[in-house]
Amino acid sequence: MRIAVLGSGTIGTALVRAALSSGHRVIGTGRSERTLERVKSLGAEATRNNEEAIASSELVVVSVKPQHFPEMVSSVSSDLWIGRTVVSVMAGVRLETLRRIMRGAEVFRAMPNVNSTVGKSATALTGEGERRGEVDSLFRTVGVTYWVQEELMDVWTALVGSGPAFVSELVDGLVLGAVASGMSRELAYSAVLDMLEGTIANLRAHRGHPLELRDNVTTPAGTTIAGLKVMERRLVKSAMMETIEAASRRAARLGKVIDEKISREISERK
Ligand SMILES: NC(=O)C1=CN([C@@H]2O[C@H](COP(=O)(O)OP(=O)(O)OC[C@H]3O[C@@H](n4cnc5c(N)ncnc54)[C@H](OP(=O)(O)O)[C@@H]3O)[C@@H](O)[C@H]2O)C=CC1
Ligand SMILES: O=C(O)[C@@H]1CCC=N1
C-alpha cells in the first residue's frame, strides 16, 4: 500500500519507520529541511507538498499538531480526500470534525504514545471503514492496539498519550529522592528503571488489584509504610487523579477549539 504521513515529527517518524518495515511505500511531509532529510534518511520519499503526498496515497496519516491542522487542511484541495483512508493521531480532534473537512474519505482516529518510537505504544483506535484491518496493522507495528468508542479518546489521550510524561516526572522524583539520600544519579536511574520493569511484570502476573502488591511489600512498622504515610499526607494519589482529569479536559477543549476553526474555514471556502 502507499502511505502518506503528513507531519513527520516524533510520532510521524515512528509511523514512517513502521510502514516502511511492513513493506509499504511511504511519503512523509514536513516544513523544515531537517524534517525532510530525516524522512529521506529512513528510506521514504519526502516533500513539503501535502497535496502531492495525499494524491499519491491510499492511506493518509495526519500527524501535525492539532494547532497546525486548520492551516494545513486549508492548503489542501477538498477533492483530494475523496476515496482515501485517513487516520488522525491528533489529540482532541473529533471524527465529526475530520469527516466535515475530508468529505468522501473514510476516517479513523488513533491515539498512540511516544513509546511508538521503541515499538511499545499502546494505541487506541476508533472509526469505521473498509481499511480498518490495514489501520490496525500499521499501529500494531509500533505496539499493541485497542479499538474503543470515540468517547474514550480524550481520557486515553490523558492516560496513555500523555502518560509517559507523567511517569517520567515520577521517575525523576524517585531518582532525586535517592540522590538526596546519597546514591549517584546514574545508579539510581538504572535501579528505578529495573524496579519499574519488575513491578510491571509482577502486576501483570498477579492480575489482581495493585493494592494487593502494595500490601505484600508493606511490613508492619517497616520502611514501606513510612514512605506510604508521606504519599498519603502529600495527596499523591489525589494529584494523579486530578492530573488525568485535567489532561482529559484539555483534550476535549482542544477538540472544540479546532472544530470551531474548521467550521469557520469551511464557511469561508463557500
Ligand atoms: N508526542 C506525543 O507523545 C504524542 C503526540 N500525539 C499527536 O501527534 C501529533 C504530532 O505530535 P508530535 O509528533 O509530538 O509533533 P512534532 O512537532 O514532533 O511533529 C509535527 C510535525 O508536523 C510538521 N508540520 C507542521 N505543519 C505542517 C504542515 N503544514 N505540513 C506538513 N508538515 C507539517 C512539522 O514539521 P517541521 O518540524 O518541519 O516544522 C513536524 O515535523 C499531534 O497532533 C499530537 O497531538 C499523539 C500521541 C502522542
Ligand atoms: O501533549 C499533547 O498534546 C500530546 C498528545 C498526547 C501526548 N502528547
Automatic annotation (TrEMBL):
It is found in: Cytoplasm. Residues 150-253 form the Pyrroline-5-carboxylate reductase dimerisation domain. Pathway: Amino-acid biosynthesis; L-proline biosynthesis; L-proline from L-glutamate 5-semialdehyde: step 1/1. InterPro entries: 6-PGluconate_DH-like_C_sf, NAD(P)-bd_dom_sf, P5C_Rdtase_cat_N, P5CR-like_CS, P5CR_dimer, Pyrroline-COOH_reductase. Keywords: Amino-acid biosynthesis, Cytoplasm, NADP, Oxidoreductase, Proline biosynthesis. Its EC number is 1.5.1.2. NADPH binds at residue 50. It catalyses: L-proline + NAD(+) = (S)-1-pyrroline-5-carboxylate + NADH + 2 H(+); L-proline + NADP(+) = (S)-1-pyrroline-5-carboxylate + NADPH + 2 H(+). GO terms for cellular component: cytoplasm. GO terms for molecular function: pyrroline-5-carboxylate reductase activity. Residues 2-92 form the Pyrroline-5-carboxylate reductase catalytic N-terminal domain. It comes from the Archaea. Its main location: cytoplasm. GO terms for biological process: L-proline biosynthetic process. PANTHER family: PYRROLINE-5-CARBOXYLATE REDUCTASE (PTHR11645), PYRROLINE-5-CARBOXYLATE REDUCTASE 3 (PTHR11645:SF0). Belongs to the pyrroline-5-carboxylate reductase family. Catalyzes the reduction of 1-pyrroline-5-carboxylate (PCA) to L-proline. This is Pyrroline-5-carboxylate reductase. It comes from Metallosphaera yellowstonensis MK1.
